[in-house]
């Protein structure tokens, strides 16, 4: 060691001093932060109720950014995020979309969250909508080739089987041909679209649409694949729903249970509590056998295909349920199904005689507690017209229903009811009977509940009388309408995807001139008369939606 005060010692001391006073490479603020530990996210200190209130107003993209802020925040929001975006999910028939469903079913957490699977009828429109870009043409060709293999080679059923087998909490499987406009997080009226439809549309340079046209995927194909997949997966959801708005239905052969599949399918059908169908009620041989294997159904909904002209009126299925002998030459459907646990029956878009309607309903008298009728038209026979103009088929219907032995309905939901006379819509005047059945000054569904059936029917009868009186008072006003352009009115402005039953278009092409008419009464009339009828004040207004229910704030089932 060099002696203190030597030249070498002084040089060493100077070097040490220079090092000690050299500026630090790390700013003091950062160094202090490192000493204090990891940075804190103050949002994690907010009570979860307040945090949810804050994030409720964010768009989907903004919510994703918040979840990426830190792991603690992501964990706090995950339960609510997964419930909103994965509890109920809509997919389309494409490799990408169905593979995503399979991936979700293999996820350790999300597979337990997904309870409602929707398979929609999305399809790709013609390529003429875009400029001919070779890469997009190739992508479109690849998609269509893969689509054909999915449908025709059994790959769709195979992928659905894998997904259904892994979804341990699957409750509802749904077929639909519309997008619900309830994604309000991204703006009022924003649609919940099938997963992958936007990505596919961008890749192929074409539109991915939903709803019926010549290119659509038939819902019967989807329904058959779903049934086969549920049987193969030994999955037992509580509900199968068919929600179709366009003028199509599940064809009767789709309900055929092949002997090779019976052992697998029967347990699935026996486990159902809810069955919502859109069917051709004139062809019901396979459906009758299908229903006979669903003894635990508590809620049955039967819709006929939607029509802009008139409700469906050939109902072999209802004849079978009412124990009416088939006409000569018609195939027998066997003994009517009993459904001993049925509590709720919904009928939509059908035309029946009052007697047949009563017999169908009283067939389930032992257990039935709720009845919903929407777009149901009762036929007025010549005998009814000749004997009692004031009675009307709906009065007759409720009178007979009130006298039915053993029937104890405690809830009636009624909307868009009507009467069909022997002359049809065009030749009947309002003064001759109830062309449109209303329960007051609006067309919204009316719910009667909480009292005994006798009291409920008395209330319904009183409202029927009030509605008829209101319509008769409008008779003179209605017949002054100019109908010269009624048949040419364009109803394309009527939204068929609205969450509510949209009735009046803001731009329907009609011209009321100086006519004064009660708005609510006109709404009630336009909900029944078809476009072009002289008693329809807005000739282009007739929506195809059927009964509807909203089962969550995330999405809605709007067809019934």
From TrEMBL:
SUPFAM superfamilies: F-box domain. It comes from the Eukaryota. Signal peptide: none annotated. Residues 488-500, 551-560 have a biased composition (Acidic residues). Residues 1-31, 481-560 are annotated as: Disordered. Residues 1-14 have a biased composition (Basic residues). Residues 40-89 form the F-box domain. This is F-box domain-containing protein.
